[in-house]
Amino acid sequence: MNFKFDNNTPIYIQLVEQIKIHIISGHFGVGERLPSVRELAMETKVNPNTMQKALLELEDLKLIYTERTNGKFVTTDTDLILRYKKQYADELSKNFLLSMKSIGYDEKQALEYLKELKGDK
Amino acid sequence: MNFKFDNNTPIYIQLVEQIKIHIISGHFGVGERLPSVRELAMETKVNPNTMQKALLELEDLKLIYTERTNGKFVTTDTDLILRYKKQYADELSKNFLLSMKSIGYDEKQALEYLKELKGDK
DNA sequence: ATTATTGTATTAATCAAATAATACAGCGGG
DNA sequence: CCCGCTGTATTATTTGATTAATACAATAAT
């Protein structure tokens, strides 16, 4: 599950984000059963309560659902997942352009910057 | 100074970031005197101590310097500012590409996505 | 039926960020 | 000289995230 935590945002928020990405990217498949709360907490070296809090939020987002004594599962609503994926890509893109703009690169220049970066490696 | 705080990262970190951007973008000019700690705190509706903490970090970064009883000033080292600007643009760009990759868009697709976004509006 | 595993709930303790209320030291202008 | 403005320092309090240690209820498997 290789998580990298940045110290400046609450862990449970980062957990929500990371698991969301795992679902959006298909790393956690549609309808797939997640590891148990305790397992996930162990893996990520986080307190079970913290993991539970993150999973609760994901359930609010309808990205996962719970079978009370059986486990938690990725939603089977593929459309929903796709919508989240697009929404996420949109956010990333808009934020990128906005941030670049805030330090003086307009959209065209931002694109140029990315292209140069590709060339570099 | 219009700041928008996101609740999930410590305010002083966000202050450092925002002021850094103001300097990088030239909104705070080279060598310009900053508003006093108390003023900045008022403007941003933050406790003076929190602002002070942020300014201390900016001083560690050499982006500002202090005249003890006179005020704080933007560095006059334009090269340094430029280096920070490039570093920041690099970070933004690399992070953008990484994040897009994590949800299944390779570099080419990420670029396409940005271009489409421009077309939309 | 017992056992292990599931999610869930509760309560206390810890830790860091942020606020709050001051106080001090140095300089400059009226 | 003194008042007002700088930055800086100190101490206490509040708030929220996180950890910690349990406990309970429901189900599936043995």
Mind explaining what this structure looks like?
Two copies of one chain form a homodimer. Chain A is mainly α and 121 residues long. Helix content of chain A is 60%, strand content 7%. Chain A has a two-stranded antiparallel ribbon with strand order 1-2. The longest helix of chain A is centred in the last third of the chain and has 25 residues, at 78-102. The radius of gyration of chain A is 17 Å and the shape is elongated. Chain A starts with 10 loop residues before the first helix and ends with a helix. The interface between A and B is medium-sized, with 31 and 31 residues. The structure holds a DNA duplex (30 and 30 nucleotides).
Enumerate the spans of chain A where pLDDT stays under 50 for 5 or more consecutive residues: none
How large, in whole angstroms, is the Cα Rg of chain A?
17 Å
**Major sheet: arrangement of strands of chain A:** 1-2
Protein chains sharing the most extensive interface:
A-B, 31 and 31 residues
Number of DSSP-assigned strands of chain A: 2
Cα separation of the termini of chain A? 28 Å
Round the mean pLDDT of chain A to the nearest integer and report it. Answer: 91
